[in-house]
Amino acid sequence: SKDRPKDAPKGGSTTTSTFLAACRGEKVDHVPVWFMRQAGRSLPEYRKLREGVPMLESCTRPEMVVEITMQPVRRYGVDAAIFYSDIVVPLKAIGVDLDIVPGTGPVVAKPIRTVKDVEPQLRELTPADVPYVTESVRGLVSELGTTPLIGFAGAPFTLASYLIEGGPSRDHRLTKELMYRDPATWDALLGRLATIAATFLRVQVKAGAKAVQLFDSWAGSLSREDYVKYVKPYAKRVLDAVADLDVPRIHFGVGTGELLGEMGDAGADVVGVDWRVSLSDALARVGSGRSVQGNLDPTVLFAPDEVMRAKATAVLDAGRKARGHVFNLGHGVLPATDPDALKRLVDHVHAYEVR
Ligand code: CP3
């Protein structure tokens, strides 16, 4: 608001959230900023806390979840917190045999390949399966004050890719093979993943999350035609299933330059943009009815300070034409990133004159 003292921290300390305003396309007095993977290995305080605790176990310990989520909020004064969890947490919670291997990512013991694998492995998720999520979000909301918490889930295609491939994949060959070959299994699998993702989001919002982000990280591996036919309907189901909760819905993927219009059309209020497409091109594709989030290349944090500032300013300048702009990186913070560089970036974004 305009009577906020000039030296007041910009983060989330205002009474109405700048982040939520930008998501809704309302007027803001500064450009809000947060970072995907702002919590995690780039922070020494995170590495210390996580010592000896496996990733997925850490997600079930509310005290740890609250502390890890808060770490970047305290350090950087970002305008939003992102819930510390993982896209595979709801799958683990319904009993899928999987683990997160450091340096690799999610690894699934018995990959899903036929329709007979779907039902026994993937039952519906209920809120009672993830009591630690509800407890963690409640704890966070009271700790965060007016800084909004973003809840999230993995989108059906990205979750399916891990379940079918058994782990990370470069070409998603097995996933697409099943998609083309076996429409009934595909529908059973993505339909079930859509309801799981929707429940996971609803649990977080009911516990106090103020926005949600649907991560379809690997959707960029698809042509637009295939995205529309095989993937968009299931992402839409997830986004539609939380529409009544009245929180902004962010929809993000990597390498999705050609899909941005469709990803917005799936039911997003905000479309996340990676760095491979310029924000001005992204605006043209997303249209004027939605806000955008992004899109500085995460490796720019390793550039000299003046280069970083110039590139961030270019993103901010392009964002002026958006209905609303949430500053972010084009994908997650790289583990080797210097936290001081991220702090300088937050200060630079907050100092940018919006009027
Ligand atoms: O600040 C945050 O963003 C924290 C919450 C968060 C994590 N994972 C924590 C995490 C979020 C939003 C995710 C989502 C996620 N997980 C996605 C979608 C986002 C994206 O990156 O596109 C995906 C694809 C995953 C699957 C996954 N989990 C990967 C690829 C990895 C990295 C593996 C590695 O070691 O490089 C994980 C593990 C993971 N999830 C870590 C964190 C902080 C690292 C775990 C560690 O500390 O060892």
From TrEMBL:
<protein>
    <recommendedName>
        <fullName>Uroporphyrinogen decarboxylase</fullName>
        <ecNumber>4.1.1.37</ecNumber>
    </recommendedName>
</protein>
<keyword id="KW-0963">Cytoplasm</keyword>
<dbReference type="GO" id="GO:0004853">
    <property type="term" value="F:uroporphyrinogen decarboxylase activity"/>
</dbReference>
<feature type="binding site">
    <location>
        <position position="162"/>
    </location>
    <ligand>
        <name>substrate</name>
    </ligand>
</feature>
<dbReference type="InterPro" id="IPR006361">
    <property type="entry name" value="Uroporphyrinogen_deCO2ase_HemE"/>
</dbReference>
<comment type="function">
    <text>Catalyzes the decarboxylation of four acetate groups of uroporphyrinogen-III to yield coproporphyrinogen-III.</text>
</comment>
<feature type="domain" description="Uroporphyrinogen decarboxylase (URO-D)">
    <location>
        <begin position="150"/>
        <end position="166"/>
    </location>
</feature>
<dbReference type="GO" id="GO:0005829">
    <property type="term" value="C:cytosol"/>
</dbReference>
<keyword id="KW-0627">Porphyrin biosynthesis</keyword>
<dbReference type="GO" id="GO:0006782">
    <property type="term" value="P:protoporphyrinogen IX biosynthetic process"/>
</dbReference>
<keyword id="KW-0210">Decarboxylase</keyword>
<feature type="domain" description="Uroporphyrinogen decarboxylase (URO-D)">
    <location>
        <begin position="32"/>
        <end position="41"/>
    </location>
</feature>
<keyword id="KW-0456">Lyase</keyword>
<comment type="subunit">
    <text>Homodimer.</text>
</comment>
<dbReference type="InterPro" id="IPR000257">
    <property type="entry name" value="Uroporphyrinogen_deCOase"/>
</dbReference>
<feature type="binding site">
    <location>
        <position position="217"/>
    </location>
    <ligand>
        <name>substrate</name>
    </ligand>
</feature>
<comment type="similarity">
    <text>Belongs to the uroporphyrinogen decarboxylase family.</text>
</comment>
<feature type="binding site">
    <location>
        <position position="86"/>
    </location>
    <ligand>
        <name>substrate</name>
    </ligand>
</feature>
<dbReference type="Pfam" id="PF01208">
    <property type="entry name" value="URO-D"/>
</dbReference>
<dbReference type="InterPro" id="IPR038071">
    <property type="entry name" value="UROD/MetE-like_sf"/>
</dbReference>
<feature type="binding site">
    <location>
        <position position="331"/>
    </location>
    <ligand>
        <name>substrate</name>
    </ligand>
</feature>
<feature type="site" description="Transition state stabilizer">
    <location>
        <position position="86"/>
    </location>
</feature>
<feature type="binding site">
    <location>
        <begin position="37"/>
        <end position="41"/>
    </location>
    <ligand>
        <name>substrate</name>
    </ligand>
</feature>
<comment type="pathway">
    <text>Porphyrin-containing compound metabolism; protoporphyrin-IX biosynthesis; coproporphyrinogen-III from 5-aminolevulinate: step 4/4.</text>
</comment>
